[in-house]
Amino acid sequence: MRLDPKAMRYLTGEDFRVLTGVEIGSRNHEVVPTPLIVQLSGLRGGSGVHKCISNLAKLNLIAKVKNTKYDGYRLTYGGLDYLALHTHQKQKTVYSVGNRIGVGKEADIIVVAAASGEQRVLKIHRLGRISFRTVKTNRDYLRHRSSASWMYMSRLAAMKEYAFMKALNENGFRVPDPIGQNRHTIVMSLIDAYPLRQISSVPEPSKLYAELIEMILELASVGLIHGDFNEFNILIKEEKVVSSAKGKEPERLHTDNDDDGDDDENTNIILTPILIDFPQMVSMDHTNADMYFDRDVNCIKRYFQRKFGFVSDEPGPFFKDAKKLVGTRKGGKRLDVEVEASGFSRKMAKELEAYMKEVGVDGDNGGEERDSEDEEDEDQEDGSGSEEGERDDAEEEQGQSTSDRAAGEEAPGSKESLDIDKLKISETPGQAS
Ligand SMILES: Nc1ncnc2c1ncn2[C@@H]1O[C@H](COP(=O)(O)OP(=O)(O)O)[C@@H](O)[C@H]1O
Ligand SMILES: [Mg+2]
């Protein structure tokens, strides 16, 4: 499902109240009966509400469902997106919406702008988009109803990601600045950089490798494992530093769409890795911490070997050694403990983890070994649409594979191509409706 914000500006305050009514109603109704929507919207004059309902349904923000017992509506992903955007707009975290720069199995990444024009990133979590059917058939252990579960779980993923981004950011880790979180979305700073995946060569692989391993160990020292430490989730920022030393070869990285020509002998380029994507972070105390830790380390080792032909002479690092580092940084800070205390509880973490396992979320690599292929030219569809028939949101498009995204989507740096739609919404209550 693609976020299309165009209708935002035509929706009235009443439309949003009715949409909110459907959202509230879906907390305990799989299909929200129309009279309940009328009641929850808190608007007087039933015919006005019915106008809003048909308007919202036309825009696919809610969908009519004919039940055996009664007719009603359910909220669609589009409706949930609009509610979140509306809140971001009110909180001034988002003013306008631009291009989608990434689409993964579990999230859409969209460039947005603040009123000042500052560009930001809106990440919309869409947990269970691909494997909706699996969720439906195995949902017994979930307390939540199926139609509410994707909303609830996507919200948990956003909450978790935001909580970790904030804790990491405040503690000197190189991650985006967290700006806002609402429902299943977060707003963060735009990193003007390419994912490691798109970088074909680096001048000193050993240096970058060492920095990445250092990052893994720094995370361990505050009690954390990223859990999906791979070439898609590490952005490599180039920072130009003008050096006075003449004749020194400038450090340079090459991306697959290089366009430079402004190489200056006096300019050194420093490569800074920035880490993103945190919904699967785990504590160093997690039951399977050793497996997650090793997987993160091996992922980087394998990638550097395959892509840059670099193999470190040092074995490890190993989990048992990393474990000794826990609590050794900054007066024994434990960010796993801090995040838990900040509101993303252990219970929420467990629920989310169980659900992610259930819907097969296991990082950008889809579990393991996409190995043999190397470059960005593979554009196989991710998992065919054949089992999608039963999915509630059948109208929604299939998610692309992460490899498509890395190849085809635009780099965040290309600012010229932004087509920003103003999100101004009419707040005039009940105009002619
Ligand atoms: N803050 C950001 N700045 C720039 N690019 C970003 C940012 N966040 C995400 N991206 C881009 O979007 C892609 C997907 O983002 P990610 O958070 O990893 O989502 P997913 O959970 O779908 O993997 C990244 O690989 C990166 O290219
Ligand atoms: Mg990712």
TrEMBL record:
- Keywords of the record: ATP-binding, Kinase, Magnesium, Metal-binding, Nucleotide-binding, Serine/threonine-protein kinase, Transferase
Record protein name field? Serine/threonine-protein kinase RIO2
Where in the numbering of this chain does the RIO kinase domain appear?
A: 66-327
Report which reactions are catalysed by this protein: L-seryl-[protein] + ATP = O-phospho-L-seryl-[protein] + ADP + H(+); L-threonyl-[protein] + ATP = O-phospho-L-threonyl-[protein] + ADP + H(+)
Provide ranges: composition bias, Basic and acidic residues. 246-256, 406-425
What organism, scientifically named, is this protein from? Answer: Polytolypa hystricis (strain UAMH7299)
Family, according to the entry, reads as follows: Belongs to the protein kinase superfamily. RIO-type Ser/Thr kinase family.
Cofactor(s) the protein needs = Mg(2+)
Q: What is its EC number?
A: 2.7.11.1
Biological classification of the source? Eukaryota, Fungi, Dikarya, Ascomycota, Pezizomycotina
Q: Name one GO biological process term.
A: maturation of SSU-rRNA
CDD domains, per database record: RIO2_C (cd05144)
Q: Which GO terms describe its molecular function?
A: ATP binding; metal ion binding; protein serine/threonine kinase activity
* Region feature (Disordered): 246-266, 358-433
Listed Acidic residues bias regions: 257-266, 370-398
One GO CC term of this entry? cytosol
